[in-house]
Design goal:
Oligomer: single chain
Number of strands: 12
Strand content: 15-25%
CATH topology of the largest domain: Rossmann fold
Distance between the termini: 22 Å
Helix content: 25-40%
Number of domains: 2
Largest sheet: 7 strands, parallel
Strand order of the largest sheet: 8-7-6-9-10-11-12
Structural class: alpha/beta
CATH architecture of the largest domain: 3-Layer(aba) Sandwich
Length: 318
């Protein structure tokens, strides 16, 4: 089987091995693929792996040997899955590789907002502590989380991972989810969105992006939150109306926000969150721990191996 990796750099910038994938067939690996290069790079390949390279119906039409598309991520909106199904092309994703890493990153964003460790570290290295009249100083309020309430919108695997860590910090946990389950009930109180917005000191987004959740954080929902709430988003950027969040940050209605995702990525210089007060922005790296990427690699290889053996694993367009 001829296998093409269209954009492998973010998954493997050099610290992992493509060896297990290469063992499955003739393999070509590209760090990045521009839109105009997609068809020529796929050529007569039967299997491709893509992370963010878009695979349209037109691409599939032009690449007549294509039988398998493996998405190197959980979200698969970069592939026209209906067109693939119509053409008999199997599409798979990687559903569970980053659960703990993404939950951990949400808590890291929260702790940074609570203590601004990076900021204070920089001031020490710049000599401010050395020249300080007092034996300590802080430039932001230092926030203790024990006894406060975290509301988590989307309480699947990642939401529950974040909930377990919040509970370990002695926070009360509220959850909104379309499908409550017993593991969730062991961690949190399931509530409706109105109650979560009204009672949470911290709100974390871990829901999928769809028609019902796009823009779920907006001027109207922010108005229902506590004054001084903290917002975390390392799920999907379009869950937030960024101009409304920026306005709330600048007014103080929202005390702080930690986001690892934005509406357009890479971020554009015009994004209002770049100039908003007390907004920490990281470049979509929640998933990027080496351990998490190794799991992603292992699952991606196994998905393709199983397909070659006639077994359907993690197929999203059956």
């Amino acid at each position: 089987m001829k296998i093409i990796v269209l954009d492998g750099y973010t998954e493997n910038p050099g610290d992992l091995s493509w060896g297990p994938l290469k063992a499955l067939g003739q393999t070509e690996i590209y760090d990045r693929t521009e839109a105009g290069e997609t068809v020529s790079r796929i050529g007569d390949a039967e299997a491709i792996l893509t992370n963010k390279t878009v695979i349209t119906d037109e691409v599939m039409e032009a690449c007549g040997n294509l039988r398998y598309i493996g998405v190197l991520a959980t979200g698969y909106n970069v592939v026209d899955v209906e067109a693939a199904k119509r053409r008999g092309i199997t599409v798979t994703n990687i559903p569970t590789y980053g659960t703990d890493a993404v939950g951990q990153f949400a808590i890291a964003l929260l702790l940074e907002i609570c203590h601004h460790i990076g900021h204070h570290d920089r001031t020490v290295h710049e000599g401010r502590w050395e020249n300080c009249q007092d034996w300590c100083y802080w430039d932001y309020p230092l926030i203790e989380l024990a006894g406060k309430t975290m509301g988590i919108i989307g309480f699947g695997r990642i939401g529950q991972a974040t909930g377990r860590m919040a509970a370990a910090l002695r926070m009360r946990v509220l959850a909104v989810d379309e499908y409550p389950n017993e593991s969730g009930r062991a961690l949190a109180e399931y509530v409706d969105l109105e109650k979560l917005l009204a009672e949470s000191d911290v709100i974390a987004l871990h829901c999928p992006l769809n028609a019902s959740t796009q823009g779920i954080i907006n001027k109207e929902t922010i108005a229902k939150m506590k004054d001084g709430v903290i917002l975390l988003n390392n799920s999907r950027g379009p869950l937030v109306v960024e101009a409304d969040l920026a306005e709330a940050l600048n007014s103080g209605k929202v005390y702080g926000a930690g986001v690892d995702v934005v509406s357009t990525e890479p971020i554009r210089g015009s994004n209002p969150l770049l100039t908003a007060k007390n907004c920490i922005i990281t470049p979509h790296i929640s998933w990027g721990a080496k351990e998490s990427r190794q799991r992603l690699m292992d699952i991606a290889v196994d998905n393709l191996r199983q397909f070659m053996n006639g077994v359907s694993v993690n197929v999203v367009n059956q």
